[in-house]
Amino acid sequence: MNRLSILIAEDNDLNYLILNKMLAPLKVSIIWARNGQEAVNYCSERQDIGLVLMDIKMPVMDGYEATMEIRKFKKDLPIVAQTAHAMEYDKNTALAVGCNDYLTKPISRDKLLEVVEKYI
């Protein structure tokens, strides 16, 4: 496995802590963006980010818009949408704006690790 970082774009402290804990066995570096604009900034400034877990509903800039912005300069960076919205429309929208995959909350540890290991 590469020693790349995973960016967790998540405005909810508890959700971030849960994701961070679930990813601990992978022994990867975690970066926390608290809104979509921070996620875009981190992705433009850092070359070590190998995966983004992108919450869709965030302040300042939502996950859809952040994904579209990131795609302008990082075409191949894996971005996995994570959201409480489990409708097919939400999944299709996330994939249409450039997300590679989609997880619905609450996210199971096994499903999270399966998706993350697919991309790192």
Please provide a written account of the structure.
By secondary structure, the protein is an alpha/beta fold. It has a single domain, classed as Rossmann fold (3-Layer(aba) Sandwich). It is 42% helix and 22% strand. The chain is built from 5 helices and 5 strands, in the order E-H-E-H-E-H-E-H-E-H. The chain has helices at 13-23, 36-45, 63-71, 88-97, 109-119, and strands at 5-9, 29-33, 49-55, 79-83, 101-104. The protein has a 5-stranded parallel beta sheet with strand order 2-1-3-4-5, sandwiched between helices. Helix 2 (36-45) runs parallel beside helix 3 (63-71). The longest helix has 11 residues, at 13-23. The radius of gyration is 13 Å and the shape is globular. The termini are close together.
Largest sheet: 5 strands, parallel
**Which sequence of strands runs across the widest sheet?**
2-1-3-4-5
The CATH superfamily bears the name Response regulator
The CATH topology annotation reads as Rossmann fold
CATH architecture: 3-Layer(aba) Sandwich
Rg calc: 13 Å
Number of strands: 5
Strand content: 15-25%
CATH class: Alpha Beta
Q: Uncertain runs with pLDDT below 50, 5 residues or more? A: none
* Order of helical and strand elements: EHEHEHEHEH
Quaternary form: single chain
Report the mean per-residue pLDDT as an integer: 94
What is the end-to-end distance? 6 Å
Count of the domains? 1
Helix content: 40-55%
Report the total helices: 5
Give the overall silhouette.
Answer: globular
Helix vs. strand class:
alpha/beta
